[in-house]
Write a structure and sequence with these properties.
mainly alpha, single chain, 11 helices
């Protein structure tokens, strides 16, 4: 129990420190974060798996929060790959820019500015707001909150994309059109035959990991299918369908 509590606190501290470094244009914070966060997250996951079932529930809310941060930073924005362009010897190496005659601190300052613009929103900023009081002298909160925060439902695909980037929706719709999946005028799904709901749902569930949308919950997916693609779908029709990792949708890049 003590080990997992310590690891949780170290994870929270690393995220908040990274947030502060980006806010204060401290490029060294990127290297420090990449050195600490992935290994601590792996340790947390191992500790969770070793807990008796009666203790696991206590940490499920935190696990959800911290893995949302991981998905957002390392999948949507893939900061570890971005950093490798500027840090020799991989993400754990010393800070050296790969550009000729350029001070590495200046190179990483530009990088940190780009990341700061990208990541200062849900769910990364939400995590910082939720846990920052741990390091501001306030009382330690319970890891498991008393009640879930109400989720804001996404009604359309454009809303889900706009959270990430204004060009995300345009890029995605362009791909759907190029494959003949949607009408070029209405943007509605063309194939209304049996099985088309499963195909569309598989695409939608893959979009967050490809960098196009925020995390899409079941209610979001149902609403998008009905509103953006003009299809009828039952409330439980999408539950068993997994993300289509073979869809060939290209990763979104700004």
């Amino acid at each position: 129990m003590e080990n997992i509590e310590i690891t949780i606190k170290e994870l929270i501290k690393s995220v908040i420190q990274f947030y502060n470094d980006m806010e204060n244009d401290n490029p060294e914070g990127l290297n420090s974060f990449l050195n600490i966060f992935p290994s601590k997250l792996e340790l947390f996951n191992d500790l969770m798996n070793s807990l008796p079932p009666s203790e696991v529930e206590r940490y499920l809310y935190f696990k959800h929060d911290i893995f949302n941060v991981y998905d957002y930073l390392f999948k949507s924005y893939n900061i570890s790959l971005i950093a490798e362009k500027y840090i020799s010897g991989g993400v754990i190496g010393s800070i050296h820019a790969h550009t000729n005659n350029l001070n590495p601190i200046f190179a990483l300052s530009a990088l940190s500015g780009n990341i700061k613009k990208s990541v200062s929103s849900h769910p990364y900023e939400d995590f910082v707001k939720k846990y920052s009081h741990l390091f501001n002298g306030e009382n330690k909160p319970e890891i498991k909150p008393k009640s879930k925060q109400k989720e804001i439902q996404t009604t359309t695909l454009k809303e889900a994309c706009d959270v990430i980037h204004p060009e995300s929706y345009t890029s995605l719709i362009g791909w759907f059109e190029s494959k003949g999946l949607i009408d070029s005028d209405t943007k509605y799904w063309i194939d209304q035959k049996h099985g088309s709901i499963a195909i569309l749902t598989g695409y939608l569930k893959a979009l967050h990991s490809l960098g196009y949308t925020k995390v899409l919950h079941t209610k979001d997916i149902l609403s998008i299918i009905r509103t953006s693609f003009n299809m009828e779908v039952g409330d439980t029709s999408t539950d068993h369908i997994k993300a289509d990792k073979e869809s060939k949708i290209p990763r979104f890049s700004k």
